[in-house]
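Quick one:
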Amino acid sequence: MSWLNKFKAPRISNETKKREDVPEGLWEKCPSCQEVLFAQDLAKNLMVCSNCQHHFKLTARQRIDCIVDPDSFEEIDHELKPIDPLHFKDSKKYSDRIKSTAKNLPNENEAYIYGKAKIKGKDFVLGSFVFEYMGGSMGSVVGEKLTRTYELALKEKKPVLVITASGGARMQEGILSLMQMAKCSAAIKKLKKAGIPYVVLLTHPTTGGVAASMAMLGDVHLAEPNALIGFAGPRVIEQTIKQTLPEGFQRSEFLLEHGMVDRIVHRKDLRNTLDFFISSLGYKLYAEKKPDIKVVVSEK
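Output:
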């Protein structure tokens, strides 16, 4: 008998011991190129993959911190919370969903936050969808806070920036949710009549009733790379029209090619780009507040 037949394999326990001295979350795997990235380096790079430039998702407050001057964001109406006016129930009661979401996100009361902020010393009004709160869905409270965002900009004559990240209208609130599309659109119309600049930053994903209303009514539409932007999802459209959609359909690059987006902006360039558009579109507003700034208008 060969000595190989007498060899016994070492015993390997099925229970893997976890080293307590190794902290969790040290590494992140890029979903696009599968590169394993050091979490601290990824954070320093604004959550953008250094290998393929894939943009990881950011929370609403992380995104705000990347844009505004340090400690300049003053949130308004944080205390507003959703209720269950229709006593809606699917696989779970809507009221229970609200409670469980509040438990998981103790610092957020709704899927949208807004307030006053500064970018390179310039005042503006800023709003951002909170996608981690029920997919950033727009219910009656989100619609009310959006409307108050535009009304604040109108009252104080400040440019307004809204960052979108939403699955659309909140089905648990039925027609009350769909009404917010018209409500926000009417408030935006008042902004345009008053000449108040409105900039929209479209992030992944921006779909449904949000995309079909306030998200596409800005003076300037900026988008992050490869963001999904559209009304119905690609699978729903393909099943409806029984046709295969073009590659990259409803992504930022596709929308830019077809004139639906003005510019795709890498996250590292976002702050400077937003400052440029807010300053350029709002130069008259800033000039009115600072008489020492001279606005030269060509006679032509």
